């Protein structure tokens, strides 16, 4: 097939989950022979790796700058990420010829305009040619037709691992992530008495509050706040379990990375977690916001090394069959080509 010219747009100067998603996908697309551009995201985290892969990067921190970037780059498809970028993509068509197909990737289980006037967002939605949802939970929440394309990661080769008695949480310390639930569940499980520790990798506004909770629960000796870590793959290959507490996760890239590492995941039975580990036999899901349920799952796994190994292997098999970058890139390209064909008609 003819290579595509692809522009990813994020109105951002950060490097969080969405920006990481774009970096991974853009690099695979460039490796496949497509001409790829990325506009937006943190320059220090994106520019170098993208340049090494042959992807051109342009910093964008406002809708106006995004519109300018879209209009200045001749591409077949503009893939926007998050609402501000969607607005920029739609605005780029006003007063000019409709050239590039517009495809939006939806990362969150929210309808546009949930937190503001909805009418302008309905206009934006009518101007888009296609929408991609990263999970069934997102697709069911956005109230527009979409194609589900799961995020993926590269397979991880495992050899000579020595897992420790560590429960890992890796997420931003923000209220919506419900890190406190994981701390309370760890305390209630009683596994600290058997030598298990809890490591929390991440930063955010709730850190002081969470440290106070740890002190209140009298588990400070068993809990480590690691701050921001850029070595999560190593942590995942040496930890004993991962806890994912977010009840409304779009999909959960950290969970997929843990699955790839064979690290057994204990997660809330909600959102994208139902797509990732929900169908794994012998899974370790707990009802959203259920501290006792989470504690029970932790206690069951902590006391059974064979079950941990079996669950980690089963979740890894699911990742290798359903959540790979190869599958994500192929399915995304199919959406692009369908949108382009529709636009040209």
Which residue ranges are poorly predicted, with pLDDT under 50 across at least 5 consecutive positions? none
Summarize the main sheet. 7 strands, parallel
CATH level 1 class label of the largest domain: Alpha Beta
CATH architecture of the largest domain: 3-Layer(aba) Sandwich
Radius of gyration: 21 Å
* Anisotropy-based shape: elongated
CATH superfamily grouping of the largest domain: Glycogen Phosphorylase B
Distance between the termini: 19 Å
Rounded average pLDDT:
93
Percent strand: 15-25%
- Derived from helix and strand composition plus strand pairing, the structural class reads alpha/beta
Tally the structural domains.
Answer: 2
Could you tell me the CATH topology label of the largest domain: Rossmann fold
Give the count of helical stretches.
Answer: 14
Strand order of the largest sheet: 3-2-1-4-5-6-7
**Share of helix among residues?**
40-55%
* Helix-strand sequence: EHEHEHEHEHEHEEHEHEHEHEHEHHH
Number of strands: 13
